[in-house]
Prior knowledge:
- By secondary structure, the protein is of the alpha/beta class.
- The protein has helices at 31-46, 74-82, 103-108, 121-132, 156-163, 207-221; strands at residues 5-7, 50-52, 63-67, 88-93, 112-114, 136-139, 168-175, 190-194.
- It has a single domain, classed as Glycerol-3-phosphate (1)-acyltransferase (3-Layer(aba) Sandwich), CATH 3.40.1130.
- Strand 4, helix 3 and strand 5 (112-114) form a beta-alpha-beta unit.
- The longest helix has 16 residues, at 31-46.
Amino acid sequence: MGSSTVRFPMEAATQAQTEKPAVEPAREPSPMYRTAMAVCRPAAIWGRLEVEGLEALPESGPVLVVGNHDSHWDPVTVGVAAIRRRQIKALAKAELWNVRGLAPILNGMGQIPIERGAGDADALARAIEELQRGACIGVFPEGTRSRGNVLRARSGVGRLALEVPEAKLVCVAIEGTTGYTRFPKRPRVRTRFFEPKGGQAQPGEDPGELAARLLAEIRELVPPAGPGRKQS
């Protein structure tokens, strides 16, 4: 079955849920999340955002969205691309909560602060709890922007997948977001959602190897790109 392509601007769509997760999650998208995505929508339109494979993203139930990270615009881009189906609660660097006025917004959006490079057990525990409640969690396994370099995958996403085996893994390849820094030249941004060709997490699979194979599939589609550069 071929995947569909959506170009912005897009009409909002809703679909009634027929099943409830075992534990009732908070109503999503939250008002703060919906407002934030609406504010960011003009940037998506300016970036000529194309969304492919959105049907790979389940409308309910626990999901781990795994993406590449080349630009500050990546989380916003994925959030806007997915808003028709899910609110993505991303693991985001804890330093953002120190920016004046930003913490209440991030908290209202359900984002999860994580100390980078510290093996933040508290952040992973919260992400596991959210997954068990049926949430959609977003993770960038590289842990930071690539700046055009090949980075290894951190094992955190593998640990989450193995701790909550009912969570579905969905990859997203993000392309063109580094072009936002070339203003006033308009970028051409694309997100491609897809299920990993290597399959879902397998019992006993090593967390680091799982994270590495997911990132490898994504980077096969979008090589690392530095600021202001296009993926080639």
